[in-house]
Amino acid sequence: MKSTEMRKVVIAGGGTAGWLAAAALSQQLGPLLDLTLVESEEIGTVGVGEASIPPMRTFHKLLRIDEVEFMRATEAVFKLGIWFRNWGRQGHEYIHSFGKIGKETWLCDFHHFWLRGLERGIDADLGAYCLELQATRAGRFATSPQSEINYAYHLDAGLYAKFLRKFSEWRGVKRVEGKIKEVRQHPESGDITSLVLDSGAEVAGDLFIDCTGFRGLLIEQTLKTGYEDWSHWLPCDSALAVQTEAVGPADPFTASTAHESGWRWRIALQHRVGNGMVYASRYISDEDARASLLDAIQGKTITEPRLLRFRTGRRLKAWNRNCVALGLASGFVEPLESTSIHLIMTGITRLMQLFPFNGVAPAVVDQYNELTRHELEQIRDFIVLHFHATQRDDTAFWRHCRDMPIPDSLTRRIELFRDMAWAWQGDGELFRVDSWVQVMLGQGIQPKHYHHFAKTMKDEDLRQLLNGMRTSIRQAVGQLPKHQDFVNQYCNARP
To answer: What are the domain boundaries of the chain?
Structure first.
């Protein structure tokens, strides 16, 4: 890896990953780089990543993307969390909201006081202390520059890529149409030197970004990077996606309903609904999965169900030689908590922070890969929690998930929460304490004890505090407009 100026950046593949990389690099480092994106209209993208999580808003602010313009362009609505049904057990439901629950102290988090309250007869669900969760239940939403409400979006992934393409090309990104026929490497170093297209055109570069999806044309097919398989923890390997007409107001949440061999999603946009089924093919056939999905959806279908295959896991290196993989080319956890777009954003942010202007150095590559691995493993554990912590034993799939060995890191988290209600957000970790607590409790993990600092508050003071919080949140939610009404006046894509 010799020292040489890295100026020519070639992005292989479009879609959300490719155009997000192009948008970020052109907006932040544009004057320093020569940016080219290669894609083919003939090659489709996965394009079903229609739900996001709140850090997307921060990334958009970094790129100076106007929220209203973005939402109109992508027919987006707001998302306050995920409503889980039949996960912990059949007939049970809970919400993983994006909001803050109660008020923590420096010594212990709010849920310890809530547990103390339950013990003293203050019987209210933990979600009663979260504005976003109660707004989710009520189907209400509003935001403003002064609002502290925490939210994300439902968006059309195909329209998002088009929006980002326009954003990027306006900032100087060159788009080259064509299929990649050959990836050329330096005969001595093994670094990628150029992409040869079907037309015979050759696109040379210094740094290559692989956004070619599951196939990993550069990172895997060319550089033979290797893959760490996580299917023993995340057994679903197939998904069916279908779009339907809207049949009512758009919900401000993603619906996730567990079924006999996996789960279904429902994601409402402004003028249609995205539906899908994620499943383990060894427990249910494609035909039965298709029939089950079509039987469960509401509204007239707009598209035919589209079948996707995947293998959960990660590339052994997200950065190998002079190639950085983003999106599905770098690995795939599970769409359950809508982390796919977020991982593209963190990957490109990390690349910009560690950008090899003076040549690729081993220490930089190692740091990028270590941070990426750590981030993916933390998200992996959070996703595995949903499948493993279940009382369901009605099918072979759920018995497998309940009984399977899990990562030691997740075992420790579960044991600490069960023993003493201890939850934490690790360094650089995506999911906050509130997220871990909501899902742990929602999946049926009940703490045996809580931090005794909560006992230092007198019963009457605790009762007054908790009652006051619930009343304040109930009143605040009551003042919010209906989610659909707010969308109509704020960012209606088709007035």
So the answer is: 8-77+154-231+312-376, 96-149+379-478
- Beta-carbon count within 10 A of 424 CB: 13
**Tens of pLDDT along 123-140?**
999 999 999 999 999 999
Among 61, 79, 100, 181, which one carries the catalytic annotation? Answer: 79
pLDDT digits (tens, 9 = 90+) for 328-341: 999 999 999 999 99
Active site residue 166: no
Name the token pair of 4: 């040489």
- Cα–Cα distance between 46 and 328 in angstroms, integer? 9
CATH code for the domain defined by 8-77+154-231+312-376: 3.50.50.60
Phi, psi of 167 (to 5 degrees): -60, -45
What percentage of the chain carries pLDDT values higher than 90?
Answer: 95
| Per-residue CA distances from 389 to 386, 398, 400, 450 (Å) | 6, 10, 11, 20
Torsions phi, psi for 356 (to 5 deg) = -85, 65
* Residue 324 φ/ψ, nearest 5 degrees: -115, 125
pTM of the model: 0.96
Q: In angstroms, what is the C-alpha Rg of the chain?
A: 23
253 CB-near residues (< 8 Å, 6+ apart): 79, 80, 81, 82, 83, 95, 136
